[in-house]
Design brief:
The structure holds 2 protein chains of 2 kinds.
Chain A: H1 6-17, H2 20-25, E1 30-32, E2 41-55, E3 58-73, H3 78-91, E4 101-117, E5 125-139
Parallel strand pairs in A: 1-2
Antiparallel strand pairs in A: 2-3, 3-5, 4-5
Chain B: E1 10-14, E2 21-22, E3 26-32, E4 35-39, E5 50-55, E6 58-64, H1 71-75, E7 82-87, E8 97-108, E9 116-128, H2 131-144
The chains are: A alpha+beta, B mainly beta.
């Protein structure tokens, strides 16, 4: 039975959540896809695309592209810029711990940075900064 | 008998067929059974004419580089040929192609992907084809005509 692929998502979240510097910059946590309504400074992780590569008889490699970004309710981008730099320092070449799999590579493919005017209150500005991170793991025994 | 997925294919290597073991991390193999054609064109023939010569055995294997699976790399250094077993689908045990082969290998390491291992092989002795199964299939076709 192949390992649970969502463990890759969990491992990525755990690495980010476990970094004290990043938690200091964005104290409202690390979230997958959607943050709670009251969160104002947080890390958001989303799975953009995932593809499997097989060998005879089994899945061998899982290759995924994640959006990982710092989000902050702030007129200044200073916090998200610092947080994005920290995200990059934490993730680049990190060896993820995933049950039943071996980490192959984690690296940024593209960076992102943009402000967002709040849809309800135009006086509110959200800052976004981070990147698209490629995560590749191999299934043990493949 | 039916068309089956290549997902359950397999390649084995060993000193003989009985002890050959499956090579991990492979996802592709090809086997060429191309027969040499000898030209026998004569005066007044309206096109070139050939007669079959000897069948050649060669092919390729492909997969991912796996530091825990070095059978293919080791095979490239063997002075005596290894026994290779090519299986289209492990659920059809009577359909295997096997024989002695010399193996060459190549590793490719792209910066943004998984390192791959590929290889070529050449027959180094008589090969066993699934003759009995092929004859049975042929007889079945003839009966149904």
């Amino acid at each position: 039975m192949p390992p649970d692929s969502s463990a890759i998502d969990d491992a990525l979240l755990a690495v980010l959540a476990g970094d004290a510097t990043l938690s200091g910059l964005l104290p409202d946590g690390v979230w997958f896809d959607q943050a709670p309504a009251n969160a104002r400074q947080f890390v958001l992780v989303s799975l953009f695309h995932a593809a499997d590569q097989g060998t005879f008889g089994q899945r061998a490699i899982e290759d995924a592209l994640y959006l990982v970004k710092a989000v902050s309710f702030n007129t200044s981008p200073a916090t998200v810029l610092a947080a994005a730099a920290r995200i990059d320092a934490v993730l680049e070449d990190v060896a993820l711990t995933v049950a039943g799999m071996t980490s192959m590579a984690v690296y940024r493919e593209q960076r992102i940075r943009y402000p967002e005017v709040d849809a309800i209150d135009p006086s509110i500005l959200w800052q976004h900064c981070g990147g698209h991170y490629r995560v590749q793991v191999s299934v043990n025994g493949a | 008998m039916a068309i089956k997925s290549g997902r359950q294919g397999q390649v084995k290597l060993g000193v003989d067929e009985a002890t050959a073991t499956a090579v991990a991390s492979l996802h592709n193999w090809t086997l060429s059974l191309a027969t040499e054609m000898i030209e026998v064109t004569c005066f007044l023939d309206t096109n070139k004419v050939y007669v079959p010569g000897m069948r050649d055995i060669s092919g390729t294997i492909g997969g991912f580089w796996n530091s825990e699976e070095l059978a293919v790399i080791e095979a490239t250094d063997d002075e005596t040929p290894l026994h290779m077993v090519l299986i289209p689908n492990i659920s059809e045990a009577t359909f295997i192609f096997s024989g002695l082969a010399y193996v060459s290998a190549e590793i490719e390491v792209p910066v943004n992907g998984a390192p791959t291992l590929s290889g070529t092989f050449s027959g180094a002795g008589p090969w066993d084809l699934p003759t009995a199964a092929l004859m049975a299939a042929r007889a079945e076709r003839q009966r149904s005509r």
